[in-house]
Amino acid sequence: MTIQELVAKATGIALRQVGNTINLLNDGATVPFISRYRKEATGNLDEVQIQEIKEKNTYYTELSQRKETVQKTIEEQGKLTLELRKQIEECWDATMLEDLYLPYKPKRKTRAAKARENGLEPLATVIMLQQNRDIQLEAEKYINDNVKTVEEALQGARDIIAEMVSEDKESRDIVRESFARQAHITTKKVKGKDAEAEKYRDYLDRDEQLSRCPSHRFLAMMRAQNEGVINIHIAPQDPSRAIERIERHYVRLRNEAGEQVREAIADSYDRLIEPSIETEYINSSKEQADTEAIKVFNDNLRQLLLAAPLGPKRILAIDPGIRTGCKTVVLDAQGDLKHHTVIFPQQRKMEAESIVTDLVSKYKIEAIAVGNGTASRETESFVRAVVPQTPLFVVSEDGASVYSASKTARDEFPDQDVTVRGAVSIGRRLMDPLAELVKIDPKSIGVGQYQHDVDQNRLKDALNSTVESCVNLVGVNVNTASKHLLTYVSGLGPTLAQNIVDYRTANGAFSSRTELKKVPRLGAKAFEQCAGFLRIDGKNPLDNSAVHPESYHIVEKMAKDLGTTVKELINDGTKRKQIDIKKYVTEEVGLLTLNDIMKELEKPGRDPREHIEEFHFAEGISAIEDLVPGMELPGIVTNITAFGAFVDLGVHQDGLVHISQCSDRFVKDINEVLKLHQHVRVKVLEVDMARKRISLTMKGL
Question: What predicted TM-score, i.e. pTM, was given to this entire model?
Answer without folding.
Answer: 0.83
